């Protein structure tokens, strides 16, 4: 939630080194985030096996209520808000921070709601008897969010919402509180509380995530519509498929195969996802059948990484929110994912010295350690947008990663 209107890559630091632009999204003018949405429009990030309906279509997806999301939902339920209103908030938090309480943006936004400046959290803690706690404390942030929800609304985007065909009786706050569907609540919270740059609002991410939590992600929480006394800790967490984080002592040597080294465009993905010509695969054409279809910054590195990983491992899973360099860290907190300092062929890899993500195609021994061969998108150009002819492959040495847990994968992946 922020007061500035800078159009910078969401939650990202300035692009450094390689021209590897990540997914732009959600430049929030209230909550202080410019968060990157690397989140599945058809699925909530994090995994639990169940079948859910998203209104007009029904599909089997992996959805596990995120731990932080459930804490936030419990806080809103305790405050007396409806299930629909709460799901709308959750959809927005997914877009803003990927439920990461330590998510930080280059313009000063911080936390699950990207408060700007960050010291807003400290001021609220001091005023509410929590001054001795960390501003990254999940309990603090979820309570603050629920307790200050209504005071942070305004109607700057009221006309924009009406122009999209929504009937608003009163204010955007009224629309959120009285919403009859999670989608309506998500739109109201986005427009009235988050207030992103309207041209980069990515409302489909927000509404789809809200619907999925509403349908199957909030089963452990009771919504009475009545405010209940605040408690220091709510026990609504359902984390049946928790992630693991391993240091790993040995790399897994081998090769995935299939990624070309003699071309610089994405046309080689044509047979898999109908990414055949410039403009394909970005969700703008009815022929698009690829896994990740967001046209937020063209063919940037996040777009490529999630599509390549789906190409290797098949579907039936959901991606993790974050900038390229944030994905591994966010995966460490996401059920159904694991992170490691040791690579395996078919891993995703977040770079630590600049904002980028790539896919591990091959791992081989190099001296006393290892090196990896990666494929990647948006490598060559300094433009903010990834281009059709910016597919790339290269070798990267072990020293690049400084021993950090940057390799992310799902244990269910067999390659």
Automatic annotation (TrEMBL):
Gene3D superfamilies: 1.10.530.10, endopeptidase domain like (from Nostoc punctiforme)
Polar residues biased stretches: 226-250
InterPro entries registered for this protein in UniProt: CHAP_dom, Papain-like_cys_pep_sf, Phage_lysozyme2
Keyword Ribonucleoprotein: no
Name under which the protein is recorded: Peptidase C51 domain-containing protein
Xref: SUPFAM superfamilies: Cysteine proteinases
Chain coiled-coil ranges: none
Domain (Peptidase C51): residue spans on this chain: 276-409
One Pfam family it belongs to: Phage_lysozyme2
TM segment ranges: none
Organism expressing this protein natively: Bifidobacterium breve
Keywords: Plasmid
Positions of the UniProt region annotated as Disordered: 226-257
Keyword Glycosyltransferase appears in the UniProt entry: no
Classification lineage: Bacteria, Bacillati, Actinomycetota, Actinomycetes, Bifidobacteriales
């Amino acid at each position: 939630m922020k007061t500035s209107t800078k159009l910078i890559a969401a939650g990202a630091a300035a692009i450094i080194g390689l021209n590897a632009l990540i997914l732009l999204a959600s430049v929030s003018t209230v909550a202080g985030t410019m968060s990157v949405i690397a989140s599945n429009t058809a699925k909530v990030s994090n995994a639990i096996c169940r079948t859910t309906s998203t209104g007009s279509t029904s599909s089997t997806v992996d959805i596990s209520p995120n731990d932080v999301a459930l804490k936030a939902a419990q806080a809103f339920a305790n405050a007396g808000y409806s299930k629909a209103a709460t799901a709308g908030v959750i959809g927005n938090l997914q877009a803003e921070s990927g439920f990461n309480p330590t998510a930080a943006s280059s313009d000063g936004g911080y936390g699950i709601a990207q408060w700007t400046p960050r010291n807003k959290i400290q001021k609220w803690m001091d005023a509410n008897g929590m001054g001795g706690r960390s501003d990254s404390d999940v309990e603090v942030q979820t309570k603050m969010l629920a307790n200050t929800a209504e005071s942070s609304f305004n109607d700057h985007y009221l006309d924009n919402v009406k122009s999209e065909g929504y009937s608003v009786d009163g204010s955007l706050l009224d629309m959120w509180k009285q919403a009859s569907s999670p989608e309506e609540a998500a739109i109201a919270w986005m427009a009235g509380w988050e207030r992103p740059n309207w041209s980069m609002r990515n409302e489909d991410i927000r509404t789809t995530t809200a619907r999925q939590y509403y349908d199957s992600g909030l089963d452990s929480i009771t919504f009475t519509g009545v405010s209940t006394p605040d408690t220091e800790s709510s026990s609504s967490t359902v984390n049946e498929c928790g992630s693991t984080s391993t240091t790993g002592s040995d790399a897994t040597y081998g090769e995935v195969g299939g990624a070309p080294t003699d071309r610089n465009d994405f046309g080689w993905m044509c047979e898999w996802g109908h990414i055949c010509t410039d403009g394909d695969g970005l969700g703008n054409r009815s022929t698009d059948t690829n896994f990740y279809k967001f046209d937020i910054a063209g063919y940037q590195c996040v777009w490529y990484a999630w599509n390549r990983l789906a190409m290797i491992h098949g579907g039936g899973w959901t991606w993790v929110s974050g900038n390229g360099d944030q994905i591994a860290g966010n995966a460490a907190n996401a059920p159904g994912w694991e992170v490691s300092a040791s690579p395996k062929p078919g891993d995703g890899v977040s770079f630590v010295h600049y904002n980028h993500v790539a896919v591990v195609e091959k791992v081989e021994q190099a001296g006393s350690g290892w090196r990896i061969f990666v494929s990647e998108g948006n490598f060559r150009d300094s433009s903010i947008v990834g281009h059709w002819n910016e597919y790339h492959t290269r070798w990267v040495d072990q020293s690049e990663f400084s021993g950090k847990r940057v390799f992310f994968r799902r244990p269910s992946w067999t390659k």
